[in-house]
Specification:
- A 7-stranded mixed β-sheet has the order 10-9-18-19-20-17-21. It has a 6-stranded mixed β-sheet with strand order 12-5-4-16-24-23, with helices on one face. A 3-stranded antiparallel β-sheet has the order 2-1-3, with no helix packed on it.
- About 50% of the residues are buried.
- It is elongated and about 70 Å long.
- With about 475 residues, the protein is of the alpha+beta class.
- Bound molecules: flavin-adenine dinucleotide.
- The site of flavin-adenine dinucleotide has 40 residues, from α3, α6, β17 and α11.
């Protein structure tokens, strides 16, 4: 932790640079100090001079780290300097949240509750939500939830939030039959309790409507934050060189390759190291619209969702037409997910799926549906519409088991599902907890920042659950060894 500790005197003695306000602050303007995360190199100061409206210059004139190799990202992560903000923040702090999935959105809503304004940046071209994706294909239209299917509730704070969504008509209970479908067509319904919830028009509309009635949450979309720079006591965010604003505190509300790259040269090595410990599964999603209903195995009820067991290429199949519209006529829109093991074996770059792989995967997944339903090979009707997608960073397979990570010296935190588990509830609880912690941190006048450090060194442990996440009360019968095998 020595890299974190910097007295004001060491700063003063090094500083030939004057500290002047950028804008009117009643308190002194925050200064920014960089130190190396390795103990060998010494301090570097980032000035607090007024910048006359110019955007921050990049430290060491480094180019964007995007597009660099994994090895170079790793090297940067472990050798980058650590930023330390010293003086108090402005009276009216502004939090920048990078990621508008469940975690980032709930973080913003929870900050508003305690009177703190925020701006949420999200890359989504079609809407907010990240892995709460809903795809609508016109003109018919065909509708598919193509990541999160439904959620359950176990935590009282999440229950409160869910009740408010129910009151506003954003979600409802999914009353349809869900069960486990064993290879060969043996279907076992799951109990109707605990309640299962879905977005009334799909998951993405739920995400899009969350910030709609807020006064202190600003949403910027589509926007891909490609750089974080500490300067003049603030975090400056930019998208490919275009400034996106300056913030007193930042929240990283996304994970995976994108977050690793963003953090690799940010001045937050402790956060970057924790993020790099995260392992994510890969899952193929096949969206398929059928003219006729799928053949339900004899003796089974007409189920709307099934966790598939004993089939390598399929872990879940869900009927969106029934779930969202109780519609039992054509088109029948099904979302079919692969297992994580199948996803890992057939992983390709998700932005550039070779057509041969797409064909192979689609065939294997449709054969998997036949096997699950217990019908002869090649007897399944062909979907008249289909779309294949790879979730290359689908679900966390390990977690530190703490609600968030916060670096008080760098005035930055992370929230997301993976900190607690692998579902929407974990993501929401993580966003909520981080917001409250930021509130406490800001209210404390930042007297003893080290007291607010959370999760910077925690170990990670494997996560158990279904291949598409954890559902309290609907625990998986998956073999934990199989899950460890993914790491
Ligand atoms: C196939 C699949 C099925 C699932 N099924 C279920 C289910 O049935 N039930 C359940 O509870 N959970 C399910 N999950 C898990 C659930 O979707 C996630 O746990 C949850 O959505 C994670 O939310 P998050 O906010 O942590 O992250 P995300 O949803 O990933 O949000 C991160 C956001 O940040 C954005 N972003 C990334 N980089 C940047 C950047 N540089 N600048 C700006 N924005 C950026 C991303 O575009 C994204 O919108 C499923 C997941 C998958 C993949």
């Amino acid at each position: 932790m020595s890299n974190l500790v910097h007295s004001r005197s060491s700063f003063s003695s090094l500083s030939s640079l004057t500290v002047q306000p950028l804008k009117l602050h009643r308190k002194p303007l925050a200064s920014t100090i960089f130190t190396s995360s390795s103990s060998k190199t010494s301090t570097l100061i980032c000035s607090s001079k007024p910048n006359n409206g110019r955007k921050p210059m990049s430290r060491k004139g480094k180019k964007s780290s995007y597009g660099t190799s994994r090895r170079s990202i790793l090297k940067k992560t472990f050798t980058q300097e650590h930023v330390t903000f010293t003086f108090p923040v402005a009276d009216d702090p502004h939090v920048g949240i990078i990621g508008g999935g469940m975690a980032g959105l709930v973080c913003a809503l929870s900050l508003e509750k305690i009177g703190i304004k925020s701006t949420v940046f999200d890359t989504g071209n079609h809407g907010l939500g990240g892995r709460m994706g809903t795809r609508k294909i016109d003109p018919q239209p065909l509708i598919f939830d193509h990541a999160a299917q439904f959620f359950t509730v176990s935590n009282p704070q999440f229950a409160e939030l869910v009740d408010s969504w129910l009151e506003k008509g954003l979600i409802r209970q999914w009353q349809g039959t869900i069960g486990e479908l064993e290879v060969g067509g043996q279907f076992v319904p799951l109990p109707s309790l605990p309640p299962k919830y879905v977005g009334v028009n799909g998951m993405r509309p739920l995400a899009d409507s969350l910030p709609s009635q807020t006064r202190m949450v600003n949403v910027v979309r589509p926007c891909w934050i490609s750089r974080l720079e500490p300067f003049n006591g603030m975090w400056h965010l930019s998208e490919n060189g275009k400034p996106c604003g300056q913030f007193d505190v930042i929240v990283i509300a996304h994970n995976g390759k994108c977050a690793n790259r963003l953090l690799a040269s940010s001045g937050l090595p402790l956060i970057a190291r924790q993020m790099k410990k995260l392992d994510l599964s890969s899952i193929w999603a096949l969206l398929a619209a059928f003219e006729d209903p799928l053949p339900i195995p004899s003796g089974a009820p007409p189920f709307e969702g099934a966790f598939v067991k004993g089939v390598d290429s399929v872990s879940w199949m869900g009927n969106n037409s029934m779930k969202l519209f109780s519609k039992n006529n054509s088109p029948h829109c099904w979302t079919i997910f692969s297992t994580a093991a199948f996803g890992r074996r057939n992983k390709v770059p998700q932005e550039n799926i070779p057509s041969a792989t797409a064909e192979k995967v689609k065939t294997a997944m449709l054969e998997g549906v036949e096997a699950a339903l217990g019908i002869p090979k090649s007897s399944l009707q062909m979907p008249y519409y289909s779309r294949l997608q790879l979730w290359g960073a689908a679900l966390p397979t390990n977690s530190p088991g703490i609600p968030f990570i916060f670096d008080p010296h760098g005035r930055a935190g992370i929230c997301g599902d993976w900190l607690l588990g692998s579902n929407l509830e974990s993501a929401a609880l993580s966003g909520m907890a981080l917001a409250n912690h930021i509130g406490d941190f800001l209210r404390s006048a930042i007297g003893r920042p080290e007291e607010f450090a959370v999760g910077l060194h925690n170990e990670f442990h494997p996560i158990e659950g279904h291949d598409i996440g954890q559902f309290s009360g609907l625990e998986s019968r998956a073999n934990p060894k199989e899950l460890q095998h993914l790491n």
